Design the sequence.
């Protein structure tokens, strides 16, 4: 039986190189992030596929455009202003400059992360990794919590964001 087959039907094994899953550790970024949405989370990519997925999503969001007070900004700046009330009164040019600095930092951090051996695997139900099942919905990839730890963490993150925007 190989790593991608189920060793236990009640708790399948997920290969670290399975592109259908995003796998993270709970941790802290080296730098501080105020605008970069990925850097405001404590989910740290644990596999090469997850790193690539995160960087792709980051660039996709950055490539979208928002009009904020008559000024075109990238998607990270636009979403950050909309989601974080503390940013709403700040100077747009300052936020754009800060986002560019944060973007460079987060890309460097992600590229420098040590990841799990792509030949290895983990049981789906575990207390070490956050695991999301990646599913396509038309042209959008949706990440659905795939284990108990991830569901608990996801619910806590939603509550934290609600309180932050309170």
Sequence:
């Amino acid at each position: 039986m190989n790593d991608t087959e189920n060793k236990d039907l009640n708790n399948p094994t997920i290969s670290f190189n399975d592109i259908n899953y995003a796998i993270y550790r709970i941790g802290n970024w080296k730098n501080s992030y105020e605008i970069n949405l990925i850097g405001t989370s404590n989910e740290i990519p644990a596999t090469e596929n997850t790193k690539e997925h995160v960087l792709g999503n980051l660039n996709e969001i950055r490539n979208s455009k928002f009009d904020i007070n008559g000024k075109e900004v990238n998607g990270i700046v636009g979403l950050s202003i909309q989601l974080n009330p503390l940013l709403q009164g700040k100077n747009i040019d300052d936020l754009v400059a800060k986002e560019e600095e944060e973007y460079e930092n987060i890309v460097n951090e992600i590229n420098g992360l040590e990841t799990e051996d792509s030949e290895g695997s983990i049981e789906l139900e575990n207390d070490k990794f956050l695991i999301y099942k990646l599913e396509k919905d038309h042209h959008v990839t949706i990440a659905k919590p795939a284990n108990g730890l991830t569901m608990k963490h996801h619910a806590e993150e939603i509550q934290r964001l609600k309180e932050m925007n309170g």
